[in-house]
């Protein structure tokens, strides 16, 4: 049975990780003290490196330090390769490109297509399946395999793992993690950036995980993504995923199918996607006080409400979008949901208070 994502457990931000990152920034000629000032720590890196230094970092401070350190290391590596760096706004745009995909496999394919358009400023992404195992490859174009390149690529691999898990609302347990670098930082620091066992000095940057995850539906919304991207992927100290009930996962999947104008998946189809039996899915929904029919009706109701706000759409258009045969049938169904007709609802929306 798939392991659900646990509730986020706040952890004290790691000063050790911050010190390591800041030291590497200084090593490549970056202004580590300026980063600390931006984080509200004017004492500077030398003070932070002293063994007696024990000032705690807030989550916001750690996120800012991590983000600016990775940006500085990426800029350093890009400059020596004669290309612009990949920016946080481009990472955000990649996430926006995949949020409306139907499945994780589709999201990975779209992420790969996005990265291919960046002309070498992003890694080359690919996914292949070998029986029951999937291999996600993040092929780097970095010519120099030093600490700066290692830290930025490890952050990238961790980012994709966390993003893929978040998109499907389920913790993807990798079978193995491989990187094409030797261990160039303290192992404890590497483990905070990628909290899974890592094999070093391999042929490429790889994540191996059960192929069944590829068929999992994307269950996150655009609004959730906007909130996530305020700090992602640099908010390591709190897990961005939240526990999702089965009812919410099913409802999100049904809503996505309606939005894409594809047939609503059946209970058995969803069960296969979630890697459980139909009976188990039905039981878990019942335990949460929901049923497949209730969730379908809720999704159709919500979409109808949204579409009625667009006065350019006829009731026949809306009926087709929400799965009714014609406007008359839609009107009866809408009145059963709300107690009023679609025309009365639209008129009430348009009337000034």
Structure in words:
The protein is α+β, with helices and mostly antiparallel strands. The longest helix has 23 residues, at 59-81. It is built from 16 helices and five strands. A five-stranded mixed β-sheet has the order 1-2-5-3-4. Strand 3, helix 8 (187-193) and strand 4 form a beta-alpha-beta unit. It has two domains: 15-228, no CATH class; 246-350, Homeodomain-like (Arc Repressor Mutant, subunit A, Orthogonal Bundle), CATH 1.10.10. Helix content is 52%, strand content 7%. Residues 1-11 have low confidence and may be disordered. It has helices at residues 15-27, 32-38, 45-49, 59-81, 88-98, 104-116, 147-168, 187-193, 222-228, 246-259, 267-273, 278-287, 292-308, 315-322, 327-338, 342-350; strands at 124-130, 133-139, 176-178, 198-199, 206-210. The radius of gyration is 24 Å and the shape is elongated.
Helices and strands in order:
Elements: H1 15-27, H2 32-38, H3 45-49, H4 59-81, H5 88-98, H6 104-116, E1 124-130, E2 133-139, H7 147-168, E3 176-178, H8 187-193, E4 198-199, E5 206-210, H9 222-228, H10 246-259, H11 267-273, H12 278-287, H13 292-308, H14 315-322, H15 327-338, H16 342-350
Parallel strand pairs: 3-4
Antiparallel strand pairs: 1-2, 2-5, 3-5
Helix segment tally: 16
Taken together, the total number of domains comes to 2
What percent of residues adopt helix (DSSP H or I)? 40-55%
Q: How much beta, percentage-wise?
A: 5-15%
Distance between the termini: 51 Å
Across the major sheet, the strand order is 1-2-5-3-4
The low-confidence parts are 1-11
Oligomeric grouping of the chains: single chain
Number of DSSP E strands: 5
